[in-house]
Design brief:
Blueprint (H helix, E strand, L loop, with lengths): L4 H23 L5 H29 L17 E3 L12 E2 L7 E2 L3 E5 L6 E7 L9 E7 L7 E6 L12 E11 L4 E10 L2 E8 L5 E8 L10 E11 L4 E14 L4
Antiparallel strand pairs: 1-13, 2-5, 3-4, 4-7, 5-6, 6-13, 7-12, 8-11, 8-13, 9-10, 9-12
Length: 257
């Protein structure tokens, strides 16, 4: 970053350019059309460069900052994680007429059985003061002729390292929707040839909600745990807009009785 005389010179140059364009704006009503066309061409080129700067600046300066991993896991958690979709920008950022088994990033997969898909997914930039995640996921469902719609989130290897029946796994999410609907969260843990499943219904309140999966009530073979994922299942999603502003996962050992 420049300082001293160099920075002062830049300020003076900027003020001169700004004065010249203010004067040009005042003259635009009275100059001849040939001159006005030339002014318009230069103004459009200048606007293109300004828009590029604003686009980058807004992305970098809007809170929460991109790649921010701030979260509030429960006390005594030994692992916490936010998927990449809510943590950093994806490419592409969305899709329309989403087919079943389509992926958004490396960790999120959509499943449905619609004959004609009228479903769109889009990563959005969070800007609300209470947001901790830099990004969110917006899902628009129009006509829905299928029997199920779910979003599968694959959890990383760290989630199952040392996982035991003494653990409680938590999903915390921030949900917004146009009209109320039932959302179920199903935790899947593959151990050897078997898969343990625990289902919880998310509270129907908009805003931050959380569900706990207590593994003490499963038949988990701790020595053969291989992978873990969560399905978010949306009941009756037709003609609704659902926004998941955040999604985090954590685990903690349950209190010994």
């Amino acid at each position: 970053m420049k300082s001293g005389p160099g920075r002062l010179y830049e300020k003076l140059v900027f003020r001169g350019i700004l004065r010249r364009w203010k004067k040009t704006a005042r003259r635009a009503q009275s100059v001849d059309l040939s001159t006005l066309r030339s002014i318009r061409t230069r103004a459009r080129e200048l606007r293109r460069q300004i828009d590029k700067v604003l686009h980058v600046a807004d992305a970098r300066l809007t809170l929460p900052l991109i790649s921010s991993n701030a979260m509030q896991p429960p006390l005594h958690s030994d692992w916490a994680w936010r998927p990449e979709l809510w943590r950093g920008p994806l490419n592409p950022t969305g899709m329309a007429a989403v087919r079943s088994k389509a992926t958004l990033g490396d960790e999120v997969t959509i499943f449905h059985d619609c004959r004609i898909s009228e479903l769109t997914l889009r990563q959005i930039r969070n800007t609300q003061e209470e947001d901790l995640a830099p990004f969110g996921l917006r899902m628009d469902v129009f006509r829905f002729d299928g029997s199920f719609l779910s979003l599968a989130i694959n959890l990383p290897n760290q989630a199952v390292s040392g996982l035991g029946r003494n653990h409680i796994v938590r999903l915390s999410t921030v949900v917004q929707m146009e009209k109320p609907l039932e959302i179920f969260a199903r935790l899947n843990i593959r151990h050897g040839p078997n898969t343990e499943q625990v289902v919880r219904e998310l509270p129907r309140d908009s805003g931050e909600v959380a569900v706990d999966f207590d593994l003490a009530y499963t038949k988990l073979n701790e020595k053969r745990v291989d992978s873990m994922w969560v399905d978010l299942i949306f009941e009756g999603p037709e003609m609704n807009q659902i926004t998941l502003r955040d999604a985090t996962f954590s685990r903690r050992p349950r209190a010994e009785l």
